[in-house]
Protein: Regulatory protein, luxR family
Amino acid sequence: MNILNPLSVEDFNEIAKNDNPLNIGNYEVFFQKQIDEASNYAVGPYFWFIGNNHEMKIVAASQNINELTPFSHERWTNGTALFLVENLHPDDSFYVLSALNLAVQKIEELPVERQANVRVNIYARMLNALNEYRWVLIQMPGLYIGIDRTTCGIIMITDLSHLSFKEKPVLMTLTDKIANQNVYFNIAPDEMKLVNVDLPNITKREQEILKLMAKGLNSPQIAEKLFLSYHTIENHKRNLRQKTNSKTSVELINYVWSNNLI
Structure:
């Protein structure tokens, strides 16, 4: 059983920091493709920021970041790992650092040609512009790993305040989209450690359909969006309900959100 202990900011900095500088002039331009594509799969209001492990700082952020957090764009672009932690719920913050560290380690272990195809989803509670905690989805749509293991990555954070979780959701999922391998982690209530949990495998096509369902699209609209037939979409939905043991689309979406399967 894989178990991860929470990381303090000091431990995270010690593990992640690399003394070799990155030869990237403009980080926002470097990740422009991921920034442009973010709106295609966002399921709510979102913002992004870019950090690197040489300076251990946030080096760029979206202009709307002050609309979804209590702090200004200028404050974010001078922030550190500690600043990120200060925005997270105390019960979640050190597990988020641990999850981010694990995600980077898992990606580094893969061949270069597969690194860009790993999807990282992390649930946590984070402050909104009114200084109130709400659930967010933390994703890493882009990660650059240098030859010397110096890294920088773009983090996308989506507001999930329109959702109400009946219980604490699965903290993190890692998905290798090429091999279609999923690893799910949750916080064990008794041990307060991250442990593996067994959840159904969701294919790439099923994930696409679930994202569109989460945006409120019905089967005809999804079929048009994905250039598939109505019956194909309905078959995928039926398979998803069987996998998740849910009877309706509402139950399916609730299960998916609670278990971080999108």
Q: What stands out?
A: The CA atoms of residues 103 and 120 lie 7 Å apart.
